[in-house]
Amino acid sequence: MKDLSGLPIMHFERRKVDFGKVKKGEKREHTFHFTNTGEGPLTIDIISACDCTTVEYERGKTWQPGESGDIHVIFDSSSKDEGETITIDIILRQTAGKEQYPIIESLQYTFELEN
Q: How far is residue 108's CA from residue 82's CA, in Å, rounded to a whole number?
């Protein structure tokens, strides 16, 4: 088992949101709140999502253990033809330990496209 001491841990109040029925062309928004419950500083390197998703957060910020932050997501249904589940991958910078492993967190939202 790997030693996780000194690493950041993103604890989210919710990791998945259901936007329900969405008409093509509508936008939906949600803010995911998180707290760094780990022992090390938390810095987001990259957030990757579908082209239909805009992600806003404090770029370049480092959250110390116990500090909280937000990731704001804007979904634009204009290019969608059916409902689906979208995954948002968050890659954290790791600075602790001798071996460097990527730390990847994921969030999701789902929607049902209404005609």
A: 16
**Residue the block writes with tokens 């704001």:** 72
Task: Say if strands 53-56 and 103-114 run parallel, antiparallel, or are unpaired.
Answer: unpaired
Distance of CA 11 to the CA centre of its chain: 11
- β strands within 38-102, DSSP E: 42-48, 53-56, 62-63, 68-76, 84-93
* Gap between the Cα atoms of 86 and 41, Å rounded: 28
Low-confidence stretches of the chain (pLDDT < 70) are: 1-4, 95-100
Structure token pair of residue 21: 């029925």
- To the nearest 10°, the Cα dihedral for 95, 100, 104, 105? -40
2.40.100.10, 2.60.40.10, 1.10.357.10, 3.40.50.2000: which CATH number matches 10-114? 2.60.40.10
